[in-house]
Design a protein that fits this description.
Immunoglobulin-like; alpha+beta; binds copper (II) ion
Length: about 290
């Protein structure tokens, strides 16, 4: 859009002699109309995007979650990372929108000359944007690692159920996926089986997950549990449901024609209700 000869002289890095100090040049740059326009656009876009992030979390909670400490950690992570990412996203969009419309060349119009020095060699500017983007990157990595450690601990790591600390009095559930249903077996309760996942509230559950045919993925949505169900192998995870209610269980791995319908209910109930359900099903032993 800009003709080669029309590039403003002030847009070139200045000669090292006789130039105003960084702070002065930064102030002048900030006074440029396009810089102001982009800053204002960034603020407006941020204000539009933040409620969208909130809507996503609200939609996630529309089905009754979070129903476990793991899901609470996941949601907090989504909220914090969204809030931190919104201004960056808004800034990128603001620059893009201004580039598309603010600098649109109108035929016959003179290309305006810039009225202050370029920012790209400004010490304060360079230090600031390097420091801010590094701090953000470190924050994202640190938050991610801490949240991951927390989630791993709350889902009892990746140890097999029989190597987990048993003093937590865990319930063990063997989960089997097959095209296109889930089956849940309770080995501590005379191998009672069910196609709805019944769980007692506030008690750790260890899942042994496997598949009879292709790869499925065991996804207890509001409990924040998601792990592959592989044929010929057992994968382990766990969770402590902390909310009574009816939740969703889905397959999260494309597994064939009826993959989308490979879903069932999770029924989290008080321990005594769970015990009577087990008895009804003929599971005499109550571990
Ligand atoms: Cu499946």
């Amino acid at each position: 859009m800009t003709e080669p000869g029309a590039v403003g002289v002030t847009d070139e890095p200045e000669a090292p002699t006789n130039r105003p100090d960084s702070e002065h040049r930064l102030r002048q740059w900030l006074r440029r109309p396009y810089v102001r326009a982009i800053v204002i656009l960034t603020l407006i876009l941020s204000l539009v995007m933040l409620p969208l992030g909130w809507l996503i979390v609200a939609a996630m909670n529309g089905t009754g979650g979070p129903a476990s400490p793991v899901m609470s950690s996941i949601q907090l992570t989504i909220i914090v990372l969204t809030v931190a990412a919104v201004p960056i996203t808004a800034f990128v969009f603001a620059v893009m929108l201004y580039s598309l419309f603010g600098w649109r060349h109108v035929r016959g119009e003179q290309v305006p000359k810039d009225d202050s020095p370029a920012i790209r060699t400004n010490t304060i500017g360079v230090v600031l944007w390097t420091a801010v983007s590094s701090a953000l990157a470190v924050f994202f990595v640190a938050w991610g690692l801490v949240a991951l450690a927390q989630i791993t601990a709350n889902s009892y790591g990746t140890l097999p159920a029989n190597e987990q600390p048993q003093d937590l009095d865990p319930l063990i559930v063997n989960v089997t996926g097959q095209q296109w249903v889930w089956t849940f077996e309770y080995p501590q309760h005379d191998r009672v089986t069910s196609d709805v996942l019944y769980l007692p509230v506030d008690r750790p559950v260890y899942f042994n997950v496997t598949s009879k045919d292709v790869i499925h993925n065991f996804w207890a949505v509001e409990l924040g549990v998601k792990i592959d169900a592989n044929p010929g192998a057992v994968t382990q995870t766990g969770v402590t449901p902390n909310k009574v209610g009816t939740f969703n269980l889905r397959c999260a791995e494309l597994c064939g024609m009826h993959h989308a319908y490979m879903q069932t209910r999770i029924q989290v109930m008080p321990q005594q209700d769970f015990t009577s359900w087990v008895r009804e099903m003929g599971g005499g032993r109550t571990a």
